Amino acid sequence: MAGLERCINLVELNLSNNQITKIEGLEGLTQLRRLVLGSNKLTRLEPAQSFAGLAKLEALWLQDNKLGPGLDALGLPELGAALPALRTLCLQNIDRSAPNPVCRAEGYKHALLAALPGLCNLDGERSPAALNYAALAAEYDAFRAAPPAPKQVALPNPAPWLAGVSMELPPGGGPAEAEVQQRHGKVVKSLDECEMLVHVLREESAKFRQQLADKRAEQQQA
């Protein structure tokens, strides 16, 4: 990975599909925020050496490498010390495709979240650091205490648009009647979908309230 010494203002670097076996030569890229190293031949991370100088790195993609099979291949907990600003880490895709062998190690997710407490996104999924439960609870309490007034929607007068339009169907039905029936079917389908959406939103709201209650109970016990 030579030839990057003068790219001191580089913010994003994509080195995927380059047969890379060792991460080196990046210490001068002090402004780097995003680094893509997917589909290479990395088998082990050495954070203190590999990521020296990358204190501002926020996102690291390492899918489709050979890291593993054990968690020691990730260089924990040195990884957190070397990359204090890291918020996104991907060792496999969100659909679990292109995984590294380490992704199948026992305690994989727990170990990474413990070593990287500021991580907000692991393998495409939001991590606990991305959820501020205290702020969410305060916002929910404020909403319940003073819910916003319902908005008054004024429907426009349809008369100008209907002027001169006949609502009668021609004798014997025909294409016009078929079109009306088709539109009626679409309206009924849309109403059914809206009703289903309301039901789903109610269920999700109930789950969210329960999560807040559980989190509060945990904080009080602590």
Describe, in plain words, how this protein is organized in 3D:
With 222 residues, this protein is an alpha/beta fold. It has two domains: 12-130, Alpha-Beta Horseshoe (Leucine-rich repeat, LRR (right-handed beta-alpha superhelix)); 132-144 and 178-222, no CATH class. Helix content is 36%, strand content 7%. The protein has helices spanning 47-50, 78-82, 108-115, 133-145, 159-162, 175-221, and strands at 12-14, 34-36, 59-61, 88-90, 121-122, 125-126. Strands 1-2-3-4-5-6 form a six-stranded mixed sheet, with no helix packed on it. Helix 3 (108-115) links the parallel strand 4 (88-90) and strand 5. The longest helix has 47 residues, at 175-221. It is elongated. The mean pLDDT is 84.
* Number of extended strands: 6
Q: What strand order characterises the main sheet?
A: 1-2-3-4-5-6
Count of separate DSSP helical elements: 6
Number of domains: 2
Q: Proportion of β residues?
A: 5-15%
Helix and strand pattern: EEHEHEHEEHHH
Q: Can you summarize the main beta sheet?
A: 6 strands, mixed
CATH architect. name of the largest domain: Alpha-Beta Horseshoe
- In the CATH scheme, what's the topology name of the largest domain? Leucine-rich repeat, LRR (right-handed beta-alpha superhelix)
Secondary structure category: alpha/beta
Query: Helix proportion of residues, in percent?
Result: 25-40%
Q: Averaged pLDDT, please?
A: 84
Alpha-carbon Rg, integer: 28 Å
- The CATH class assignment of the largest domain is Alpha Beta
Subcellular location: Cytoplasm, Cytoskeleton, Cilium axoneme
Organism: Chlamydomonas incerta
Keywords: Leucine-rich repeat, Repeat
GO cellular component, one term: axoneme
